[in-house]
Amino acid sequence: MLYIICTPIGNLNDFSLRSINTLKGVDKIYVEDTRVAAKLLQHFEIEKKTKPFHEHNENETSDEIIKLIQGGETIALLSDAGAPLISDPGYPLVQMCIKEDISFTVLPGPSAVINALILSGLPSDKFSFNGFLPKQHEAKRKIAIKLQNCDVTNIFFESAKRISNTISIFSENLSPDTQLAICREMTKEYESIYRGTIEEILTLIKNNQITMLGEFVILVYPHSYSDKVFELDEKFCRPFLEYLSPTDASKLIAKVSSFSKQEVYKFLLGISK
To answer: What residue ranges do the domains of the chain occupy?
Structure first.
């Protein structure tokens, strides 16, 4: 059996009792960084040796883990922080477990992605997690251009030393009123959340009002809230219903507004009663 265990993203008190008890009971623990894991295990008085499992050895180590499980051992997999596989090693191992019909489960816990999404205050009904941003200027510019026509909240991990450059690139390629949130040091003592338009965030950076230290998550909502200044009102929508069914009318109105077809259709049904 393989246990994939989510670890705290900053506050050790977020580690679940189930995870602690599982780690105490497994035969072996594989971790992204043995030094980081040692602090976690020592804090919870888990006296187990760990073995490294990282991006440079995960293919060969996955073979090793599969053989151990097939031999009857129970294994735990930890990342340094958050969920394994989410911008962390583990995907090949899960694929091998499926191929070999080996049981595995996930012990849920802290997630920087979900934490940041909730803290951002940006639309959360749909979102896209894009992992770590590339280091190269041109690669970031291409991402910003793709965001221009995106209508969901996009989430990125970024290094503290590249935050300023990244926001500058975004500001050059996105509308000034693009909504942004920067989440820093989540769950830790100095957790900080910065929300505003891309221009407002850029101003904070230029004025040194954002401490460029720690772990960062950037969230971008390319469609400004002001897009919905166009309101769904009966005077505007009723003429469409004179010539089109609610279904066809909702498709047309959605194309010329920032409202979804579902939102428009629901409104049209209400005024057509």
So the answer is: 2-107, 112-226, 230-271
